[in-house]
Automatic annotation (TrEMBL):
InterPro entries: Caa3_assmbl_CtaG-rel (IPR019108)
Compartment(s): Cell membrane
Source species: Mycobacterium dioxanotrophicus
Protein's membrane topology: Multi-pass membrane protein
Keyword Translocase: no
Residue intervals passing through the bilayer: 53-74, 100-121, 141-158, 165-184, 196-220, 232-258, 264-285, 297-315, 354-374, 386-408, 420-445, 466-488, 508-525, 537-566, 586-608
Name this protein carries in UniProt: Cytochrome c oxidase assembly protein
GO cellular component, one term: plasma membrane
Entry keyword set: Cell membrane, Membrane, Transmembrane, Transmembrane helix
Acetylation among keywords: no
Length: 646
């Protein structure tokens, strides 16, 4: 009976996909010539013009099936004692495996198609010629498709080899990277305000892919009745995020023109209407507590149509890019910096980060909610931990949204100050907050008869082999020290400094690496076995010479890290980018001592607190032993008196 119900749903989804492919192919054959004419590019021929939106749609849909499918498995699986997922979610696992393979193949083809479209050449002729490699190197989108192909292949291979729950959690990382890669190198990564657009696009494409993937996964492996509400709430949440961020992104990309005035804007409005209809249906269903999921097929068809419109938009320039005369600052920064940095400009030149900044606010809100829940329950939680976490989140918002980021994207010296804050100050505060311990105390346990929930997911993740490996003190030490040299003393920095997504990636990387390192030294949360206090202190001081040497090497270098980028930015009030780099080295050298002092104070305080607890336990044990000895002596005396009376 269940299989007979699935067949009409699968047929309807397949029909919607075929219709979307036909519509995109027709658009490519008939409407793409005007797109190339508007940008002044050469028309690459009908085959390439049609293959571009068709390939974009197939890859986008496969990426959504992978990312949403992985999230579906992670949030609905009932793993056994060995961590293997259950039979119900295995069907979704198979969907992820097959979609990832098709995703990788499509991405490989899109490397050449995108390069041919940018070069104005036929894709087949380009692939058969010797010019394909230079054409790919000249196209940012083609290089992004290389990342997609590699990440999708990794997901496909890993999904083929493992059916464990933790594997699906780990595969979320390459899946997110692949979903984001093309979006941040397309319209969102170009022109004025591309810093806002890039950060917004990151959240939008991830939320949209999660929503579409959840809907497709629910068609393949419908959730059990006790999980239906959880899945519906996640769909409603991801739909709301996609709707909000999509609206912001459309406003940014539409420019001064009304959305109804251009084909790009009309496609965006159409996609928004379909997404809004799906979200309203989910919200009403949640409110009515209707868990039959009768509208899943209709939602899937609507979202497939919406993805087709999004694919058409992604393969044509946004109106903002056509109606603007670009400056060097538009291309490399997205905003103007007419004044040199000062205390006032660093505090007031705000460009709020809609990705990391919003994430920091959400983390602060979740932590505060957990704290208040403990207080209402009558449990205590140290106020110092609350202050440390909130201070870390506030500092993260400031660092990524104030003039520190605005000037840090254009000047190496300010960037190095930003790096030190993200890598050495904020992680210390966040680690001292003990978020995992708070979550484990605040979140309710699922119980034997209910499916696993957030508390169980967190426990599995904390005690997984992956976390044990990354949080191993020596591994964390190597990541903390080596990544500093790998990023800055190799050509990697030249690429990351050029793009806003590169700055976002560096921020996340240094934040997470710093968190892992300090977790092993002053971490409160449960996890892998920690070193003794003297070992932690030694590990902390062992990292100091590496940072000092990095600062000194940067101060004495004759070449400029990220030189091509900083020269292209051409800040008129910056006299020398070489001197600015030397200043950045001095900042790296001088600012590494203050967080070490904070960590040493925290470590010594923890050490003293542990000694006091150990002494208290010893005293209680001694008092108990003394009382037992007195009782034994008293009983022996009574026995002696009893024998004398006889």
């Amino acid at each position: 009976m269940q299989s007979s119900q699935k067949r009409p749903r699968a047929n309807s989804a397949a029909a919607a996909i075929v219709a979307a492919l036909a519509g995109l192919a027709a658009y490519g054959l008939t409407g793409r010539a005007g797109v190339y004419a508007a940008t002044g590019d050469s028309y690459p021929g009908a085959l390439t013009a049609a293959a571009l939106p068709v390939g974009q749609f197939i890859a986008t849909l496969c990426g959504a099936a992978c990312l949403g499918g992985l999230l579906y498995v992670v949030t609905t699986a009932r793993p056994d004692t060995t961590g293997v997922i259950d039979e119900g979610t295995f069907r979704v696992h198979v969907l992820v495996e097959r979609a990832a393979a098709l995703w990788a193949v499509t991405a490989l083809l899109m490397i050449a198609v995108s390069a041919a479209s940018a070069a104005g050449a036929d894709a087949l002729r380009l692939m058969l010629s010797g010019a394909v490699i230079p054409a790919v190197a000249a196209s940012e989108t083609s290089r992004a498709w290389i990342v997609v192909a590699a990440a999708a292949a990794l997901v496909a291979i890993a999904a083929r080899l493992s059916v464990k729950w933790i594997t699906h959690v780990v595969l979320l990382v390459p899946a997110v990277v692949a979903v984001v890669s093309v979006a941040v190198n397309g319209n969102a990564g170009q022109g004025p305000d591309h810093d806002y657009a890039t950060s917004t696009a990151i959240v939008f494409v991830v939320a949209l892919a999660a929503l579409v993937g959840f809907k497709l996964a629910a068609l393949v492996g419908p959730p059990a009745p006790e999980l239906a509400r959880r899945v519906l709430l996640l769909e409603t949440l991801t739909g709301a995020v996609a709707l909000g961020y999509g609206a912001i992104l459309l406003v940014l990309l539409a420019g001064s023109a009304l959305p109804t005035d251009t084909g790009y804007g009309r496609a965006g409005l159409g996609a928004g209407v379909l997404l809004l209809a799906v979200w309203l249906g989910d919200a009403i269903t949640v409110w009515r507590r209707d868990l039959t999921r009768a509208k899943d097929m209709i939602d899937a068809v609507a979202l497939i149509g919406m993805m087709a419109l999004v694919a058409a938009m992604a393969t044509q320039p946004a109106p903002r890019l056509l109606a603007h005369r670009f400056t060097a600052w538009d291309v490399f920064l997205g905003y103007e910096l007419p004044e040199p940095p000062s205390v006032l400009t660093l505090l007031t030149a705000w460009r709020f980060d809609t990705f990391i900044g919003v994430g920091a606010i959400v983390l602060a809100g979740l932590y505060l909610a957990g704290y208040l829940r403990l207080r209402r329950r009558g449990d205590s939680w140290p106020a110092g931990r609350l202050v440390a976490w909130l201070a870390g989140c506030a500092l993260l918002v400031f660092t990524t949204g104030s003039g520190v980021r605005a000037y840090g994207s254009a000047m190496f010296s300010v960037h190095m100050a930003e790096h030190m804050i993200l890598n050495m100050f904020i992680p210390v505060l966040l680690v001292l907050g003990g978020p995992v311990t708070l979550a484990l105390r605040a979140l309710p346990a699922a119980g034997d008869s209910r499916p696993p929930g957030p508390r169980e997911w967190l426990l599995w993740l904390v005690h997984s082999k992956v976390t044990a490996f990354l949080a191993n003190p020596m591994i964390a030490f190597i990541l903390f020290v080596a990544s500093l040299y790998v990023v800055y003393f190799t050509p990697i920095f030249n690429t990351l400094a050029r793009y806003h997504w590169g700055h976002e990636l560096m921020s996340l990387h240094f934040l997470l690496v710093g968190y892992l390192f300090y977790w092993g030294i002053i971490g409160i949360d449960p996890g892998p076995r920690k070193l003794p206090f003297l070992g932690r202190l030694g590990l902390l001081f062992a990292a100091m010479p590496f940072h000092a040497f990095f600062g000194i090497a940067t101060m004495t270098m004759t070449s400029v890290m990220g030189g091509p980028f900083y020269r292209n930015v051409g800040l008129p009030w910056l006299a020398s980018i070489e001197d600015d780099q030397h200043l950045g080295g001095a900042i790296a050298w001088g600012s590494s001592e203050l967080p070490v002092i904070i960590v040493v104070v925290a470590l010594v305080a923890q050490w003293a607190r542990q000694d006091r607890r150990a002494a208290s336990r010893s005293d209680r044990h001694a008092d108990s032993s003394y009382a037992d000895d007195e009782l034994d002596a008293y009983n022996a005396m009574l026995r002696e008196l009893s024998r004398d009376r006889r």
